[in-house]
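Format notes (please read before filing issues)

Several people have asked whether sequences and structure tokens are stored in separate files. They are not. Every record keeps both together, in the order shown below: the sequence lines, then the token lines. Line labels are part of the format and must not be stripped during preprocessing.
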Amino acid sequence: MRGVDVRVATLADLETLLRFEQGIIAAERRFDPTLRPDPIHYYALSELLASPRAVVLVAECQQRLVGSGYVRIQAAKDYHLHQQYGYLGFMYVEPGHRGQGINGLLLASCKQWAMAQGLTELRLEVYADNQPAIRAYEKAGFAGHMLEMRVAI
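Then the structure lines:
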């Protein structure tokens, strides 16, 4: 996509990344009645930025951050064929920039980083009712694998 660059995030981006995190939480509240009231955080962003086992990426348009995502190297279960995989998270595109292919650019860059680390699989979690996100991930080649279920008691 012309005019959008994907790069590795730095600590200088932290303020914007924290705002993106709150955007994700606000969007996902309608899908998850188990979330505590604000303020909450999903991610330890400073730790992710410093970790050699993860990369936080940002999409930049006209010198302004408009999207984010990360890949973290995770240990696989002992019974899986692979020993580790890339776990995707923090996927966010600002509302005014959605539908322009930015999420696809971020996903492709996450995949490239994971492959460079020798990983052969990417995984992510998405709320079952979040159909726009599911469609975006399916467009990028992801398929449903395991459905986590819950019941309040």
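For reference, the curators noted about this record: The first strand starts at residue 4 and ends at 8. The helical segments are 14-28, 45-50, 102-116, 131-139.
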